[in-house]
Amino acid sequence: MATSKQPISKKCRTFDVSPAVMGYSNKKSTRQPGNNRRRKVSEYGAQLKEKQKVKFIYGVLEKQFAKYYEKAAHMKGITGENMLQLLELRLDSVVYRLGLAKTRRMARQVVNHGHILVNGRKVNIPSYSVKQGDVITVRSQSSQLEMFKALREGTTVVTPKWLTFDAAELKGTVAELPQRSDLDYEVQENMIVEFYSR
Q: What is the mean pLDDT of the chain?
């Protein structure tokens, strides 16, 4: 499995993404505003940057990202919004959104190590796509780990409106499908669609 080992803070500055989006800070900020205004960027360059930014946020590699685009293009509705919805419904992303992991990278590791159950079945594939109504829980053997104990003892987790979470039982439910307005970062998905439509 390929993994990105590039420094998170450096990539955040490159893409003007707040470290809070990645789970590395509690405050939303864009350090060194205007840092990337060195030269005029072409239309292609701007489209490429938007694509790379979304890939970086979700930790997805190029081949897999292109497959998400193709799948979104064949779905009903707006292609860009469909693609973002598919990315949000990845199991590692849902685990992060539920607060079962502090960062997206940690969420990927939690899933890989087999700590997560979906509808009572162990799933260790971070890219597994959850559906509306799916119940995500922590395996009973894993619930005694320190990182989950702290969560159960009352750590406040702010979950998006499309998810529900019971901290006492370490159980989350996909109440509805995520909407474009639920994203916590700025993205121009139409530029990504234009990139792939060339």
A: 85
